[in-house]
Write a structure and sequence with these properties.
The protein is of the alpha/beta class. Among the domains are: 156 residues, TIM Barrel; 333 residues, TIM Barrel. Helix content is 43%, strand content 12%. The chain has 28 helices and 23 strands. Strands 1-14-13-12-11-10-8-2 form an eight-stranded parallel sheet. β21, α25 and β22 form a beta-alpha-beta unit. α8 runs parallel beside α9 and α18 packs antiparallel against α19. The structure holds glutamine and zinc ion (ZN).
């Protein structure tokens, strides 16, 4: 039995790549040094896998920003606006990733999308009618050769042709069909090139196969792969799927001449059943995804041995693999010096997962796996207790009744009451919550964490920042203010640290997009709130101004989705526990005079299953009630806002309305306001603030472009329901970008308002 991993984390165990790229952005690191850091990291990551005994190690899983972007560039899908800048290829790459504003021009970035159910944002390839799709890049080949120099024969990984076409945005008249033959030829060229380089295996990642597939999709898959595979030379092709099962195309896939097929047996609830029902061809290798690439709990060897035992009845040839790329888990437990061993022994990060693969390979290679030391030790771990229950929490969840999920009075009546209460101008301006987390803000937090300064000193600094932020917002002329979130490292980690039932890591970073990494807290046991979490800072901020300052919380579904969750209770139970905890905070804020409370659900959509038919039962039917539970107890005149970090909600628009918030702000700036149309068609009642500019980019939006966006929105949204705001929090931006951007937002709004009052 052999082992492999689908992909390995690339930012480095201490986020070395992130820091290098950010320095490069700030012009404090040269291109040469950036490339050197990248090469060192690749070398280390390959060697770590080799040392752990992984048999098939991936290459081209490295990326300076995102693999989909890499693939677009590899295939020459570079929109004209970037080519016209006439800048060096790496800078052009970063221009596509984050926009460019400088002497060569002013262009927006490509859109970012969370296509699948993780917190990872992919870039969206844009294909123009004139695009000449063909193999033009060399990155996968360069990295293959580079690894070979270190004596490591890798299995290059490339996003597959179907997923690439499926996720691309076609900006002109042409559609995927018009580019299919070019794409096929490009992939044939990729295989040819690897053939000449002597690669044994090439892995095509096709997560697109686990989504709902139409007949047309399936015939596209057939067409693309029949053509590619009939030209593959002597390279073996692994079709790798993940994030679910391939129930819509399993039979077609096993009939195609792939040499290996990778299936996810963890999230792919039907994967085993598909194999059992349809069999698995003798001449192919099954790459069995049995090690969880998304969660950090140790693998239960008894379950895995049993699963592989079942699979062996149908497949002669099995290679043990991860369920998806290990990109979605932190690098190594060995950096966690503060976490007690009693906790640690329950976890496996990327490096420890390599060890698990190695142990499982040994266990499964002998006739009586249950007699091996590794198996026995693992069994003991799972048979022991974790001491993580809290009966009061369980009772409270059990006692919930229908009424706890309904806010009174109904929205329409509340809207009237609140209009009178707040008396805001038309198109009230606001922000999403955070202000720039400058170096001094971060330094204050780390000085406190390392014990260099006292709690009082730490708090005093934050309060000064709050005062500064309130003064700045008043000066800019925003209508509804925020305190700035200077005390928050991250919108989820902050609450995780305050809630009982959570544990935290020090260095367990996971890439979210580009250079942004998050450190998801870990739900260890039953969750509850034993102390106020945000009251002090919110009350202080409100005391400084006569304008309203929003109380700022993260909602239960987002906390859940951005935490590493338990595997011993259901997500629904965990969400309700979190909802009760946040509900106490909401009521406490209200009791302390905070009139507008924003409960962010940035990640509400994230764990939505990839197939529509699975949505309700497993997700929406408890996720939306969890949100309602949080705010159903407030007074009619307390205004509840929520914020969502994406614009893909046309298909769950009814569920979003059912959250019964009073106002919703969301990302829209990068997605061409498509959502506004959806709101209009649906007759959305909740007040809305579609972002008027993109905060993921350093560029400053002009007054005229904001005005234009607002006028466009006003065609579809009643003026009494429209809020004006950036599309997300400002924490990743700098003050020099934030201040002029917000000034332009206010100036544009004032001009637009003039047209509305007459
Ligand atoms: N209130 C948060 C902030 O402004 C929301 C962040 C987010 O949506 N990701 O930072
Ligand atoms: Zn957001």
């Amino acid at each position: 039995m052999k082992t492999t991993v689908i992909g390995y984390p690339r930012v480095g165990s201490l986020r070395e790549l992130k820091f290098a790229v950010e320095k490069y952005f700030k012009n404090t690191l040269t291109k040469g040094d950036l490339k050197k850091t990248a090469a060192e990291l690749r070398k280390k990551h390959w060697n770590d896998q080799k040392r752990s005994g992984i048999d098939y190690i991936s290459s081209n899983d490295f990326s300076f920003y995102d693999n989909l972007l890499d693939t677009a560039i590899l295939l020459n899908a570079v929109p004209k606006r970037y080519k016209q800048l006439g800048i060096d290829s790496l800078d052009e790459y970063f221009a596509m990733a984050r926009g460019y504003q400088g002497e060569k021009g002013d262009v927006k970035a490509l859109a970012m999308k969370k296509w699948f159910n993780t917190n990872y944002h992919y870039m969206e390839a844009e294909i123009e009618d004139e695009a000449d799709i063909s193999l033009v890049g060399t990155k996968p080949f360069d990295e293959f050769i580079e690894a070979k120099k270190y004596g490591i024969e890798t299995k290059p990984v490339i996003i597959g042709a179907f997923t690439f076409l499926k996720l691309a945005r076609f900006t002109g008249e042409k559609t995927a069909k018009d580019f299919t033959s070019n794409v096929i030829n490009a992939y044939i060229d990729i295989l040819k090139k690897f053939d000449t380089l002597g690669a044994q295996w090439v892995q095509f990642d096709e997560p697109g196969f686990v989504m709902d597939l139409s007949e047309e999709d399936i015939s596209l898959i057939n067409k693309v792969y029949s053509a590619i595979l009939s030209n593959k030379g002597s390279v073996k092709v692994l079709l790798q799927t993940y994030f679910g099962d391939i129930r819509d195309c399993y039979r077609e896939i096993i009939a195609l001449p792939f040499d290996g097929i990778g299936l996810d047996f963890l999230e792919g609830k039907k994967s085993l059943e598909l194999v059992k029902k349809n069999g698995f061809p003798d001449n192919k290798i099954l790459f069995a995804g049995v090690i969880n690439g998304k969660n950090i709990w140790r693998n239960n060897y008894a379950n895995t041995v049993c699963l592989v035992g079942e699979l062996r009845k149908y497949c002669n040839n099995i290679i043990l693999s991860t369920s998806c790329s290990l990109l979605h888990v932190p690098y190594t437990l060995s950096n966690e010096s503060k976490l007690a061993d009693d906790y640690k022994r329950h976890f496996a990060f990327a490096e420890e997962k390599l060890m698990e693969l190695f142990e499982l390979k040994n266990i499964l290679s002998i006739n009586d796996p249950m007699l091996t030391d590794e198996y026995i030790k693992n069994e003991k771990l799972f048979n022991g207790t974790r001491n993580c229950g809290d009966s009061a929490v369980q009772t409270a969840v059990y006692a919930l009744s229908q009424n706890d999920f309904v806010r009174m009075p109904a929205f329409g009546e509340r809207e009237k009451i609140q209009k009178e209460e707040f008396n805001l101008p038309l198109l009230p301006t606001t922000t999403i919550g955070s202000f720039p987390q400058t170096a001094e803000v971060k330094a204050n937090r780390s000085s406190y964490k390392s014990g260099k300064i006292s709690f009082d000193q730490y708090t005093a600094f934050n309060k000064d920042k709050i005062a500064e932020c309130i003064a700045l917002q008043e000066k800019i002329g925003l209508d509804v203010l925020v305190h700035g979130e200077f005390e928050r490292n991250d919108m989820v980690e902050y609450f995780g640290e305050k809630l009982d039932g959570y544990i935290f890591t020090e260095k367990a970073w996971v890439q979210s997009y580009g250079t942004r990494c998050v450190k998801p807290p870990v739900v260890w046991g039953d969750v509850s709130r034993s102390q106020p979490m945000t009251i002090d800072y919110s009350v202080y901020a409100q005391s400084l101004t006569t304008k309203y300052v929003k109380g700022m919380l993260t909602g239960p579904v987002t906390i859940l989705n951005w935490s590493f969750t338990r595997e011993d209770i259901s997500l629904k139970d965990c969400a309700f526990q979190l909802a009760l905890a946040i509900r106490h905070e909401v009521l406490d804020l209200e009791a302390n005079g905070i009139k507008i409370i924003q409960i962010d659900e940035a990640a509400l959509r994230e764990k939505l299953l990839l197939r529509k038919s699975d949505w309700h039962e497993d997700y929406l039917d408890w996720a939306i009630p969890a949100f309602r539970l949080v705010h159903s107890g407030v007074k009619p005149e307390t205004q509840i806002h929520t914020h969502m970090c994406y614009s893909e909600f046309s298909d769950i628009i009814k569920n979003i309305e059912d959250m019964d918030a009073d106002a919703i702000t969301f990302e829209a700036a990068r997605s061409a306001l498509g959502i506004v149309e959806t709101l209009n068609v649906f007759g959305f009642k909740t007040e809305v603030g579609p972002g008027v500019y993109d905060i993921h980019s350093p560029r400053i939006p002009s007054v005229s472009e904001i005005k234009e966006a607002l006028f466009e929105m006003l065609e579809k949204i009643p003026k009494g329901k429209l809020w004006v705001n950036p599309d997300c929090g400002l924490k990743t931006r700098e003050n020099k970008e934030t201040v002029p951007s917000l000034e332009n937002v206010v100036a544009a709004t004032k001009e637009v308002r003039k047209n509305l009052y007459v």
